[in-house]
Amino acid sequence: MAVREEVISSAVGGAPTSAATTESTKERAARGKAARAAVPFEAHAVWVPPVDRRNPVDLLEEQSRNRIPDLVPIRHGRMLVSEFTYYRGAALPMAADLATTPDSGLRVQACGDAHLSNFGIFGSPERHLVFDVNDFDETAHGPWEWDVKRLAASLEVAGRDNDYRRKDRTSIVRQAVGSYRETMRELSRVSMLEVWYSHLDMDALLPQFQAALDSQLTPSVWHAVAKARAHDSMEAYDKLCHDTGGEPRILSDPPLLIPVEELVTGVDPTIIADALQGIIRSYTRSLETDRRCLFEQYRFVHLARKVVGVGSVGTDSWIALFLERDRQSPLLLQIKEAQASVLEEFTAKSPFANHGQRVVAGQRLMQATSDIFLGWERFDGHRGVRDYYIRQLRDWKGSADINGMTVAGMALWGRMCGWTLARAHARSGDRVAIGSYLGKTDGFERAVAEFADAYADQNERDYGLLQDAVRAGRLGAETSL
Description:
- The protein is an alpha+beta fold.
- The chain has 2 domains: 2-224 and 399-471, no CATH class; 233-392, no CATH class.
- It has 19 helices and 13 strands.
- The strands form 4 sheets. It has a 6-stranded antiparallel β-sheet. Strands 2-3-5 form a 3-stranded antiparallel β-sheet. A two-stranded antiparallel ribbon has the order 1-4.
């Protein structure tokens, strides 16, 4: 225990890379091995719910108190669709569970919600398709194992939803975690600049992934790559906006899409417009100078509230329509509320005063390349002071159809997720110590596969508790949206 406490105390409290900047490579590798001696692989295989485990329904209710009341039933309804959609919305219950499990004490900038649907394909500023983490609402400084276990369990849960055989599910999980281990060890042997420049370019996939990308064996992944370029601002504009005979406006499709004038009735539209212009001016100060210059070529036109995702339903989420001043080409930005990370209760308070800035900082640190319009803002409105981050609504974004994945497709997707997560963690954590901890054998992936299987059982039980709560009238659920 003394060794483990020493390992933990050496890694917590400073920037994620603080230990790596003061120790030699040999010392860092020794620190990883010491962590493995204190917390061996088999410790990661076990999931036994503590006797004082918090009821997941209680945790979901706690989250709902800080959300928009009329949207909360939509969130519950989406979580009820399947055990996997429940899992997607249950980041807080799993964070509470992971906080009771052993970890190596080595810290990184964690995603906080690294399930397989939170990885995807999008366009870089250089107009390349890249595969990366694409959700950072819960990003925080924390144990790297939590992200790996969240990813592994999501693959097991999704595999069960798709009726894969047990041995196929186990293989998928092991391949994903193995990809993480192998990539982390590879990155531990290269320079930090090489780590920083590395990315998964879909136009020139790494050799170990290229052979598996096949229209017959992995159709869902193939389709996601092929269609990603079509999912841009113009496609979103055609789907979400209409021409009124003058200036275009965002469509009304309540309760999922509601223009601001329908939400805020009895208020002079010019007051709303002036307030929005103030928010926009403040937001631009969070952009780099060149991006600010680009954004100033657009003018604000319209705003609407838009419900997105599963886990984030009930938080404020808006889309804002802008038009280029000369050519009238559209730009759609998403303005999304950022609340405290679900990890914060179990790790440490965010060093950022604005949670929108926390999300942006985490995204820039973990992603190989980020949206050029990524920024943050704070707004004092009818729901009090709220933090937000802003990004493009769609920019060559694509994700695979999880339900339509073949076994080979999910194995490929999982391996890509594992590669990407390791690269993201290597940018902020001590890649040498983590790589040393993981070692050369497959012991870690075997242990995590056992955990994923046990936690998928827990997820089934928790899903049943949500169903019971809805049937009993404790929680409202809108299942038609």
